[in-house]
Design goal:
Two copies of one chain form a homodimer.
Chain A: H1 9-17, E1 33-35, E2 41-51, H2 62-79, E3 83-93, H3 99-116, E4 120-127, E5 133-143, E6 158-162, H4 167-175, H5 181-184, H6 188-199, H7 208-214, E7 217-221, H8 225-236, E8 238-243, H9 251-259, H10 264-269, E9 275-280, H11 285-294, E10 299-307, E11 318-321, E12 324-326
Helix pairs in contact in A: 2-3, 4-6
Amino acid sequence: MDTDRRLSEDELIARYFAPIAGEGGFGMRDDAAALTPGEGNDLVVTVDAIVAGVHFLPDDPPAAIARKALAVNLSDLAAKGARPRGHVLSLALEEGWREDWLAAFTQGLGHAARAFGCPLLGGDTVRANGAYWLSITAFGEVPHGEMVHRFTARDGDVLCVSGTIGDAALGLALRSGVTEPWALHIGIQSRVFLTDRFLHPQPRIALADILRRRARAAMDVSDGLAGDLAKMCKASGVSAEVDLEKLPLSGAARTLSGSHPQLRDRLVTGGDDYEILCSVAPDDLDDFLNECGQVGIAMTPIGYFRPRDFAQNDCSPIFSDANGRKQYEKGSYSHF
Amino acid sequence: MDTDRRLSEDELIARYFAPIAGEGGFGMRDDAAALTPGEGNDLVVTVDAIVAGVHFLPDDPPAAIARKALAVNLSDLAAKGARPRGHVLSLALEEGWREDWLAAFTQGLGHAARAFGCPLLGGDTVRANGAYWLSITAFGEVPHGEMVHRFTARDGDVLCVSGTIGDAALGLALRSGVTEPWALHIGIQSRVFLTDRFLHPQPRIALADILRRRARAAMDVSDGLAGDLAKMCKASGVSAEVDLEKLPLSGAARTLSGSHPQLRDRLVTGGDDYEILCSVAPDDLDDFLNECGQVGIAMTPIGYFRPRDFAQNDCSPIFSDANGRKQYEKGSYSHF
């Protein structure tokens, strides 16, 4: 492959992006895309940017980076009850970018777009001034007015979370080469599993319709369970009680946190889970859990929403385990 | 203003972005926005990213950067015949960002959003790893199927361009502190005018409806007239002849290029015009020009589309002036 000369932006589009463009993208021959939701539907729009050295490691496989950038947006759409419809991409290539990197990146993006049913509709490719980065705006559809919000949880609702929590935080630590004792003695299978959970998040697209019909409020867990739950509580004007003994953990995370208790807080506060956190009315809980089971995605009740502390006007959620109750002051990964 | 501590992402959203959020943005309290085009309408989607040190100067006024980022997207929408509807923003702040910078940036974005009728609906704020940057995805509306394309120009159509060409390229040179003779002896009024044309592009929103009804093909001129026309020609499978004597120039550009002929090519190849380039059927030309006049935007016929060179399969446009005919090999600013 020719990596010695710089392609023009047009050549780059024709060679790498046009082949993966979907309907409404006009084969990337225009400056804009057209998008029409089905009759009676709203479009749901979400945007997430990821930066080399901040959200992923610069030497992560390019196909994995592309897939993850799309997956984190589709995770947001799923939480809103929206089915994927398409996406547009801004990509900034750094000085000295290689064409084989771009080839692998666009191939990975094309695969992910097909796998998730969310075609590329348009984009802009620019030169970075520093590390490379990308920003994806993704579009989903819901019947008019049925988008699921994060600010609508109510006192008495059951708090549920999908999949397992904390794997990606351990995977990131492993991938970053952390030398704590737990990381040095971990088995190869656990290492591969946890790293994969960090590199290849699974957007819970199959939950979108169920959440739309059964959940009162939902959001995806991207910055850590404790911090994201605090956001949902604050937005909804309620607090929550979480039973940490009920937290769904993978075998690897359970074993590690059993023998290294200092990891337990990291599972709750670490980011990149891309699971769904939701509030469900008690009367709907059985149907909700049954329907999640039918699409093969674990959904675990881990607590409930309760009134906020009106005296302090405090919505902070409370976490309890055998050792007592606690709150996480700075519960989540924050970029600032 | 408190610039000594880092705000959390949530505080930053609540303080700076929530106040400028429009309808469908849910006051930035959710992870996604909802957007519904009017009955029978398509959404038109465009995305443009700009990077400090690449597309603007790092010390450009933050309000001007915000305004320009939105304006360049609305320029695309106008060229597609679409009325603005809303936008989402990815913003990456660099190490050591200052809160007063962000306050000025968001205030500028809010002003521009109101002036252009294109509210902020959502966004993502991250940490840059290098220079700061932003990416805006903007949404417009057209009646179903009426988006104006850039690949539909036909042999015999008249080629027109709005406003004046080349001002921003000179403005960028001035703002970059170029020390060529023309720049050292320029009057203060011309300097202010040209710099303003670079810093504050005017998206031709008022042309959107007229283009939709009267233009066969259109695009905005962002990377230089020569290069962008070459793209339109190639996409449409035709060539074009441009009469450089007819090129609409501002008084400042006309005076400068008269006394410094070496600037003439720069007017045609320099970027950042954000004017509209379009193809109009000869029978529609009078109505088209009249309607543009009615909304107060100059529109100038500068040539016509003609068959491509079938022997060479070459669509490159040809430019002529008193000195003869020429082509621009590398006609436009390219980021690679």
